[in-house]
Amino acid sequence: MANGSWHTEAKSQWDARAEGWQSKSAEMWERGSRKGICPFFFGYVPQGSRVADLGCGDGYGSRKLHQSGYEVIGIDLSNKMVQLARRFETEGLTFRQGDLSSLPFADEELDAVMAINSLEWTENPSQVLAEIRRVLKPSGRVCAAILGPTAGPRENSYKRLSGEAVIMNTMMPWEFARLAADNGFLYMAEEHVYKGGITEPYVQAFPAELKQSLTFFTLFMIEKA
């Protein structure tokens, strides 16, 4: 894909999806696949922390963090997503259009980052992790969700097998863990979100990689070394 075309195509596709995304966002965060993300986040990032929500979409998750006592800046590539998110803006909760590979923050400005199923939508996830590391304070933390093998959205990368250009870098959860380590992050914890029919008691005895292989997404907490 030619230089700049990934960015342009990703922005165009997410602009087109913005209203459809908003229509299901509240359900995902309150009762669906994303309902456990904020409780997981709260367990590792103190209230009052300055947090960037990278790939914030329509801002619903950013709003939930802010309502629980965090200062939050949401970043999304899509102008239309940011326009939708700005309905939630208030003191301590703001939104900006931006590219995750070039974050609009100074070195060591942030306490934490949340990146929910957004790293896969970047052209160079390793570069984005390096950029996240740059803007985090020492021992800053990252809550990242990586789509698992059973996730329907992974179909967005299927056409690469026919040589077509795609704007999604699918990765296995264990690949993300290795990528994070390669970019100077320490593993802290993970949780697994499954499709209907699988619950944690069924897989409790499985090793982590086998659990990950059944997931809709794996939720990681990592720390800047």
From TrEMBL:
InterPro entries: Methyltransf_11 (IPR013216), SAM-dependent_MTases_sf (IPR029063). Signal peptide: none annotated. Pfam families: Methyltransf_11 (PF08241). One of its GO terms (biological process) is methylation. One of its GO terms (molecular function) is methyltransferase activity. Residues 53-143 form the Methyltransferase type domain. The keyword Methyltransferase applies. Keywords: Methyltransferase, Transferase, Ubiquinone. It comes from the Bacteria. This is Ubiquinone/menaquinone biosynthesis methyltransferase UbiE. It comes from Bacillus badius.
